[in-house]
């Protein structure tokens, strides 16, 4: 073969090799560009602009800093949808997660007749054994469902206080739902009665931890009243209700409109209760009230479907007959009307037989007057002892013959009526029972009226003069924190809390002072109070500071021993600071050595979220259960 042919062939191969190389490079460039553009477009569509795309042959390389691990995974998945997943190379990083906020610790507790369920997220530092033991103790053998999870993050400052308060509330409320947050406890519960509801609210108001906000919603079922009673009277003292029972707000509005037209000017005391005898109850009561106004005065009593209209001694007979006839025809069919027009009694030589029961503000009860026989006397004494305590009852009764047949029932009804008063007098005569006294229960007049009608019948005559006294109300009568501090100041103005010289030992003369202060604080639940100790200027500043602190602690411990709830108190020593007299004289130094009581002032600013929630709740229409928020 000639040499020229060989070179020609080699040249052809070289040219072909170069052409193939150039073609391959062009193909790779096209594939890389197409892959990069396609993947980049998909990432942009997926709102992942932080990711950049590079190509190396068939491989697609993802770079950039993903905000979260989930975002990184989404980017890899997006690229894998455009090119084969095996060609995707992950060179991405994830942003530092050290600044991620701690989770919000929260617990929901539900307690019912079948047991307790608890779910939520709590700190890992929580003593689970102690928590489980406490829940089991509260459950009292019922089932406990524990769905709690833990997270290893710092414990919020108020978490332990909020959780402790929630568990105390759980132990008191057999049917409840309790939500616990970092600094908030929300309690929803059901009470068996209005009285139990008041007791729950009072108990929950005690020992609320400092800094923990609470919301309490307790509902109680409507009471059942039997007989279903309303009594309305117009006399020289004006128009008033002795009792008022309604089944709905609409019924109450109808009755109050009729009462207003009849001259009633007070606030409604009607009780919404179960047991209404007819859907036409509101109509019947309104007609009966109008009848009393039309005859110029008297009393009308509705006990279930029995309506009793009683005029006064001055009521005109013709007017009474006309109004009674109109009322009888206007009443719904289910109601039966009984009328009575009393006349002035003729003068007699002796007064009617009487029985009087008196209860003093101290709780002492005296029974005086006439009873039918020894058995009736013993029965009255035992009944009073059961109501007021045997040690508080003094008998001054006399056995007399020829008393009315229902006298014993009237006597026992009078004693039961007296039990509804904090103090007062009940006078029983053959035709009337007069009840006069003070009470801390706004429903006491209705309760007394109902029991007298129940025992003596709807035609029973009763004169009630029962005054509501706020100070006797176990809830409304509680003093404000400012009043508590003022009352303590009244005690300490004339008598100082004294200590042995140079020590924190209370003197014997200080014990009565502390007793009086403890008695005041027993009626001041949930007060946040500071006990401050002060000294004179003698001695070193550090020593005076320490001495004043130990003396304040001694007073705090003395109150704790006297069963005062001191969970919301703190004790502080100020040493020789803030003198109130001249330390240059013995009298001034004596005045400066003192214990001072003051309120802990706390100001809480609502967050934006709380303001939005409050505005939303205000617009939403709430009108049901009693709610207490602190």
Automatic annotation (TrEMBL):
Location, primary (coarse class): membrane
Subcellular localization, as worded in the UniProt entry: Cell outer membrane
Signal peptide: 1-23
Cell membrane listed as a keyword: no
Keyword field: Cell outer membrane, Membrane, Signal
GO cellular component: cell outer membrane
Any Pfam family: OmpA
Composition bias, Low complexity: 617-630
UniProt-annotated stretches for the region Disordered: 610-630
Residue ranges constituting the OmpA-like domain according to the UniProt record: 486-603
PANTHER family xrefs: LIPOPROTEIN YIAD-RELATED (PTHR30329:SF21), STATOR ELEMENT OF FLAGELLAR MOTOR COMPLEX (PTHR30329)
Protein name listed in UniProt: OmpA-OmpF porin, OOP family
The species this protein was found in: Loktanella atrilutea
């Amino acid at each position: 073969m000639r040499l020229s042919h060989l070179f020609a062939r080699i040249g052809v191969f070289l040219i072909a090799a170069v052409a193939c190389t150039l073609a391959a490079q062009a193909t790779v460039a096209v594939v890389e560009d197409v892959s990069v553009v396609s993947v980049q477009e998909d990432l942009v569509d997926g709102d992942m602009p932080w990711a950049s795309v590079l190509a190396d042959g068939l491989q697609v390389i993802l770079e950039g800093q993903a905000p979260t691990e989930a975002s990184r995974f989404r980017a890899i998945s997006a690229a894998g949808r455009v090119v084969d997943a095996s060609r995707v190379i992950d060179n991405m990083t994830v942003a530092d997660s050290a600044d991620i906020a701690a989770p919000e610790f929260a617990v929901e507790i539900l307690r019912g007749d079948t047991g307790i369920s608890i779910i939520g997220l709590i700190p890992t530092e929580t003593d689970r054994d102690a928590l489980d033991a406490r829940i089991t103790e509260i459950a009292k053998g019922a089932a406990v469902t524990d769905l709690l999870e833990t997270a290893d993050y710092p414990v919020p400052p108020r978490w332990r206080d909020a959780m402790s308060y929630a568990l105390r509330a759980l132990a008191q409320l057999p049917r409840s739902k309790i939500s616990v947050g970092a600094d908030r406890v929300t309690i929803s519960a059901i009470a068996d009665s209005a009285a139990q509801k008041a007791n729950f609210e009072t108990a929950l108001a005690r020992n609320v931890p400092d800094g923990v906000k609470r919301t309490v919603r307790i509902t109680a079922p409507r009471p059942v009243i039997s007989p279903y009673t309303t009594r309305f009277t117009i006399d020289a003292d004006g128009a008033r209700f002795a009792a008022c029972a309604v089944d709905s707000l609409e019924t109450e509005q109808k009755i109050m409109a009729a009462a207003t037209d009849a001259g009633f000017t007070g606030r409604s005391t009607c009780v919404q209760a179960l047991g209404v005898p007819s859907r036409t109850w509101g109509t019947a009561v309104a007609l009966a009230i109008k009848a009393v106004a039309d005859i110029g005065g008297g009393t009308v009593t509705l006990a279930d479907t029995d309506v009793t209209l009683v005029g006064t001694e001055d009521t005109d007979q013709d007017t009474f007959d006309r109004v009674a006839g109109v009322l009888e025809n206007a009443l719904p069919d289910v109601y039966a009307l009984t009328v009575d027009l009393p006349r002035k009694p003729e003068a007699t030589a002796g007064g009617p037989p009487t029985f009087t029961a008196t209860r003093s503000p101290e709780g002492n009860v005296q029974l005086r007057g006439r009873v039918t026989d020894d058995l009736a006397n013993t029965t009255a004494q035992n009944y009073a002892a059961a109501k007021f305590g045997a040690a508080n009852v003094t008998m001054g009764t006399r056995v007399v013959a020829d008393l009315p047949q229902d006298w014993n029932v009237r006597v026992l009804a009078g004693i039961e009526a007296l039990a509804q008063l904090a103090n007062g007098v009940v006078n029983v005569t053959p035709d009337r029972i007069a009840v006069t006294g003070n009470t801390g229960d706004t429903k006491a007049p209705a309760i007394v009226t109902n029991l007298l009608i129940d025992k003596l019948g709807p035609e029973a005559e009763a004169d009630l003069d029962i005054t509501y006294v706020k100070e006797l109300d176990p809830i409304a009568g509680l003093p404000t924190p400012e009043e508590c501090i003022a009352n303590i100041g009244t005690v300490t103005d004339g008598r100082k809390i004294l200590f042995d010289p140079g020590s924190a030992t209370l003197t014997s003369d200080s014990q009565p002072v502390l007793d009086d202060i403890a008695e005041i604080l027993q009626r001041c639940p949930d007060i946040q109070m500071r006990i401050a100790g002060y000294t004179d200027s003698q001695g070193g500043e550090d020593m005076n500071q320490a001495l004043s602190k130990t003396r304040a602690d001694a007073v705090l411990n003395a109150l704790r021993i006297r069963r005062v709830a001191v969970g919301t108190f703190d004790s502080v020593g100020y040493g020789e600071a803030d003198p109130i007299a001249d330390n240059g004289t013995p009298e001034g130094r004596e005045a400066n050595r003192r214990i001072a009581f003051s309120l802990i002032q706390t100001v809480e600013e609502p967050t934006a979220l709380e303001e939005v929630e409050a505005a939303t709740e205000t617009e939403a229409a709430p009108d049901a259960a009693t709610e207490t928020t602190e």
